[in-house]
Design a protein that fits this description.
Layout lengths: L2 H4 L10 E5 L4 H12 L3 E6 L8 H4 L8 E4 L5 H11 L3 E4 L6 H6 L1 H23 L7 E6 L25 H19 L13 E7 L3 E2 L9 H11 L3 E3 L5 E3 L1 E2 L1 H15 L15 E3 L7 E3 H12 L3 E3 L17 H7 L7 H16 L4 H18 L7
Length: 386
């Protein structure tokens, strides 16, 4: 990593013990790689990767972890044992059932994983920090932009808008946000290590529709594109007019890491305590990155070749057609903003897949993209970039 990468987040994670749940997934693999590059001591908790989740092994994360625990979020005892043994100073909870359409097929598992799984992570932290000698823990719980009650507004959703969800996935994430709020107010805000600071400094982060190299998930548009391109087939596009806030995976990850750093030490932004940050935050792109699925595919094809066909199905399960996030809170409180515009995001994403297909290693590509992203953030003067 270059100096821009090493200086990121004011050295918060260097030598710190960080637990990542869902570390074997797409976002979890990118986050784990970045934390390791930042000098963190990382443990992971997740199920074994699904067949399409190849990024974790492709970038060689397993041997680099302090602990690589495979387990179910339903297993409170396993989570509690890991937290008691590893003694994390930071927790990033990403593990989830992350797909809207799949949630129609497995609604019970979706609710169990996304709601009870969140309960179990928080309960394991509550049990751990109830001990007199336990350290302060910063916990950032990752949900989704789909946690809001979607009314198909043209305006953007803000952090104080109502939770909800039409489909099981979205509803489960709205429920998870309510769980996080309940644990914060019922337990963690009452366990103060000083007059103002709780022992568990808890926040939630909401983002969605991330793209980037190494995502091979089933039923996601960018992986669908590159599977079709590699097979020499037309890309099937099922919902071409749906508008989404597309962003590179590094955008929300920078928000999660910066939010964790400020919860750890709010004086980094000249705040006297962490209270303003113990809440929910949206991390989304600028409004110019809100594009239709068809526009996303057309832009990808400029850099990767191929063709697409309209496979819209009027009888398909319901998915929201419009969804925008307001990021004013992150901008004003965290001085966070997106780094890459829509076109740059597409160039970086398409380039990753094309270069990896030509024989370049996934690890080198991830490190290069992290370094480029940090350098561009620094050139914009963003405080987390150092």
């Amino acid at each position: 990593m270059n100096n821009s990468s090493q200086q990121a987040f004011h050295g918060t994670y260097r030598g710190k013990r960080v637990l990542v749940t869902g570390h074997t997934g797409f976002k979890g693999s990118w986050l784990t790689r970045w934390l390791l590059d930042l000098g963190a001591i990382v443990a992971g908790y997740a199920r074994d990767p699904l067949p399409h989740e190849t990024l974790f092994d492709a970038i060689g994360l397993g041997p680099l972890l302090e602990q690589d625990v495979r387990g179910d979020l339903a297993d409170l005892n396993a989570l509690s044992a890991l937290i008691a043994d590893f003694q994390p100073e930071f927790v990033f909870h990403l593990a989830a059932q992350p797909l809207v359409r799949l949630s129609y097929d497995i609604p019970v598992e979706t609710f169990a994983t996304n709601v009870i799984g969140t309960v179990n992570v928080l309960e394991a932290l509550r049990q751990y920090t109830a001990r007199a000698s336990s350290p302060k823990v910063v916990a950032v719980m990752i949900t989704t932009d789909k946690c809001y009650e979607n009314r198909e507004w043209l305006s953007s959703y803000r952090e104080d808008d109502a939770m909800g969800g039409y489909d099981p996935y979205s509803a489960s994430k709205g429920c998870a946000e309510l769980v996080i709020s309940a644990y914060r107010r019922s337990f963690f805000e009452t366990l103060l290590t000083t007059s103002t600071e709780p022992q568990v400094r808890l926040a939630s982060a909401r983002a969605g529709n991330v793209i980037g190299g190494g995502d091979w998930a089933v039923d996601r548009i960018v992986p669908d594109c590159f599977r079709a391109i590699q097979a020499g087939a037309s890309i099937p596009v099922r919902n071409k007019i749906a508008t989404r806030p597309w962003q590179h995976v590094l955008e929300p990850l920078s928000g999660y890491l910066w939010l964790g750093a400020i919860l750890d030490d709010p004086s980094r932004l000249r705040f006297p305590d962490s209270k303003p940050f113990r809440s929910g935050f949206n991390f989304g792109p600028n409004l110019t990155s809100n594009r239709t699925v068809a526009q996303l595919v057309e832009e990808l094809l400029k850099h990767a070749g191929g063709k697409w066909e309209d496979c819209s199905d009027p009888n398909a399960p319901h998915e929201a057609s419009k969804l925008n996030l307001a990021i004013d809170k992150a901008f004003h409180l965290l001085s966070w903003q997106p780094v890459w515009d829509f076109e740059t995001t597409i160039v970086q994403t398409a380039g990753w897949y094309v270069r990896e297909g030509a024989g370049e290693t996934a690890a080198a590509l991830c490190d290069e993209h992290i370094a480029d992203y940090c350098a561009d953030a620094k050139s914009k003067g963003l405080p987390w970039a150092g």
